[in-house]
Amino acid sequence: MIAQLEIKNFRGFSEYKIDDVGQVNLLVGTNNCGKTSVLEAIHLLKSRGEFSAYLDIVNQRGENDGQKVRVAKDFRSLFYGFKFDSSSVFSIQSDKEEQLMTSIRKGKDNSMYMYPPDDREQLNIICNVKKKEKEAVVFFENDGMTQREYKPTLLSPENTKFVPAYSLTTQKVITLFDMISLLPDEEFVLEAIRIIEPDIVRLVPVGGKTFSEKDTRGGFFVKSSKWDERIPIGSFGDGIWRLLGLALSLVGAKDGTLLIDEIDTGLHHTVMSKMWKLICATAKKLNVQVFATTHSSDCWKTLADNAVEDEFADMPIRIHRINKDRKQAETFTNEEMHLALNRDIEVR
Fold it and tell me: Total structural domains in the chain?
């Protein structure tokens, strides 16, 4: 697990550091302070240079304007100050001797990374990935954005799940559900959505139908002890869908990392405490490191309450206040966040 994170020239950060990273981490701060950027940095680091991770974070923000990413310049928003030339480079590094460096190289003038050169100025993304004694060089080609690996490596992407602020698509949720269907983890997922609707008995996906990336809620029937008929999941509120996505992603991130943007989306403050208890207990059981963001006061306060319970006394739970005008996050430990709560100190 990451214990320290350092970011340079990525998104809105010229340089930034987060020390004392816990197993469950909540990022707080004002709008546009860089909370989501920290999640994206971790996502790229754990991807080990997988091209799909770069595509994911651009698509999730709509930075491709709905168009297919075609050339390297479509990724200019990832570089500090939108600077995109042959001197541009950003790096993301953890304390575990993990480092991902993404730089720009010209494809002209006999660059070892470009073939064949032509009269156009072609800029290409080079990704150097290191972990202890292992190293890989991955090249994102300008024309068609194909990916090629130049140095043989045993590096592979770490198991990482990213839950965006707008929740997971229907097809993604069905895919995650298929992985735990009829297994013990299915009951865990049901327990999660029962936080909001205690009468739910069973959850089944709709058969024989495919869903597009635009479908953001549906694809399941719910059986409740209150009604004889099965009910489409869309008939329930957004909170059920959000908790379903969180629970499935948490199980799917076993021995890996779970990233959640605006974790409280669609959730009423009355269910926050149960949500955090579910996340902390499951992260501890499945060896998952969690990073989440919020704007909600109720969200951090309920986490602070759970952080000092006996069940989690030995579990490092942290709140990190992000301020991109500074070089380092302000971190609150289990005891410090609870002390801030009792003294009515605003952590956000």
Answer: 1
